[in-house]
Amino acid sequence: MYPEEAKVYSGLLMTAVVLAVILSFFVISLLRQHKRNLRLHREKMIAEMTTLENERTRIAKDLHDEIGPVLSAVKFQIGSIYSQDASDKMNIQSAGKNIDELLRRIREIFYNLMPTVLSRKGFLPAVQDFIDEVNYLQEIKVEYRFRVGKFMLDKDMQIHLYRVIQEIIHNSIKHSFADSITLEISRVKNRYRIKISDNGKGFDYVTISEETKGLGLKNIISRVEALRGSLQIDSRDGAGTTYQIGIPITVKNEQ
Questions:
Q1: Which of 99, 61, 59, 57 is nearest to 77 (CA)?
Q2: How many whole angstroms separate alpha carbon 128 and alpha carbon 132?
Q3: In the chain, what are the domains?
Q4: Does residue 151 surpass a pLDDT of 90?
Q5: Using CA atoms, how far apart are residues 158 and 174, in angstroms rounded to an integer?
Q6: What does the mean pLDDT of the chain come to?
Q7: Is 99 helix (H, G, I), strand (E, B) or coil?
């Protein structure tokens, strides 16, 4: 190789090396920025969800400690009214029944807002208690199967996962026209797998996720992302809907 060619070759080689270094630095910087953005996005979601849970707790306490006792007192006062008029008696009975219905709804709302069994007994008993409550209050039948042994998940993650299951089952009750829902929770190595299926009418995932009424679905997706989990939804018209969720076990606490 002639000296001039060697110089040209060396120059091209040095230029290629410099470009490769610059490109590598650029790619690494982009990846780091992307990871940072994902971390900040996740931290923002968790902060928003924590604020939401605190607000749920405040509202639940107001319902339980203030509105509930007032309605009970009103029912007692109405029940103490004496009248011989048949129409008045019917009105008093009707008012009592309406107050009973309000108290039942307050109890249901209180339970949905603040499942105390979650903090007292842990995740699996809370889910079981929630399903028992749904079976008692709703005409739909929910079956569940747990194959996990000891449940290992941090307290905050338990709340997020509980809300995901709660939201999915409520969506099925309100929108799917299903008469049967099945919940399965199992553990495969270092992941929890949650499968929820209903025999309802199904829905168009793309359409619902783009519309305002898909807010419940967006909440589910956000919570699963906060859990660093995966979500797969299989739904077809007339064929029901199946949600499959995978949650990595990154815990320190055992329940």
A1: 99
A2: 6
A3: 1-114 (no CATH), 116-255 (3.30.565.10)
A4: no
A5: 24
A6: 79
A7: helix
Strands 191-198 and 230-235, how do they pair? Answer: unpaired
Nearest-CA neighbor of 187 among 93, 106, 254?
Answer: 254
Indicate the pLDDT class of residue 85, thresholds 50, 70 and 90.
confident
Q: Do residues 114 and 130 make contact, with C-beta atoms less than 8 angstroms apart?
A: no
Q: Could you give the strand order of the β-sheet that contains 141-147, starting from the edge strand earlier in sequence?
A: 141-147, 180-188, 191-198, 241-248, 230-235
H/E stretch holding 181 reads strand 180-188
Kindly report which listed range (55-59, 71-75, 162-166, 239-243) carries the lowest average pLDDT score.
55-59
Beta-strand relationship, 191-198 and 241-248:
antiparallel
- Locate 174 and state its tokens: 């309100």
List C-alpha distances in Å: 228 to 49, 208, 211: 15, 23, 25
Q: Name the pLDDT band for 202 (thresholds 50, 70, 90).
A: confident
* Residues near 145 by beta carbon (within 8 Å), at least 6 away in sequence: 182, 183, 184, 185
Quote the tokens at residue 184. Answer: 């399965």
Q: Where are the alpha helices (DSSP H) in 114-248?
A: 116-121, 123-137, 155-171, 205-210, 215-226
- Closest by CA to 146, choosing from 160, 164, 127, is 127
